[in-house]
Specification:
Blueprint lengths: L2 H19 L1 E9 L12 E9 L4 E9 L5 E7 L10 E4 L8 E6 L2 H8 L4 E6 L7 E4 L3
Antiparallel strand pairs: 1-2, 2-3, 3-6, 4-5, 4-7, 7-8
């Protein structure tokens, strides 16, 4: 085998193996009791997240059921620990029906908050405009 082909193959293999290593899986479990203040909603939800540190791309699939009515909005909020409220960090568009899938490129500050566990997912309804169910993003 001549050297240029070997170097090309080795570089290709290094790139192929380096890609998935920087992707991180995160999750959130949404409930009314996690809202601040807590709601009496029996609705539940989950958020499955993939974060690529190299591109700062956050991809999500949010699934929920049992809301008091249609979702009027959904967002990632932060920075805030569990039990604290914060403003919208990243909107989750098209949340009127479950599941909701999407992605966004985070700022450096948002990426740091995400990895530090300082973002939460919030689903809003007409009956609960401040949020009906919420879940802290964790690794």
């Amino acid at each position: 085998m001549n050297k240029p082909v070997f170097v090309t193959l080795a570089l290709g293999a290094a790139i192929a193996f380096a890609g998935p290593a920087c992707a991180e899986k995160l999750k959130a479990t949404l409930s009314g009791k996690s809202e601040v203040p807590a709601t009496t909603s029996s609705a539940t939800g989950t958020a499955d997240l993939d974060y690529d540190a190299a591109s700062k791309k956050l991809a999500w699939k949010v699934t929920y059921s049992g809301l008091s009515g249609p979702a009027t909005a959904a967002h990632f909020h932060g920075p805030a620990e569990a039990g604290k409220n914060a403003g919208v960090a990243v909107p989750i568009p098209n949340a009127a029906s479950s599941p909701v899938e999407g992605s966004a490129t985070l700022t450096d500050a948002q990426a740091a908050d995400l990895l530090a566990g300082k973002l939460y997912v919030n689903i809003h309804t007409a009956a609960n405009p401040g949020g009906e169910i919420r879940g802290q993003v964790t690794k």
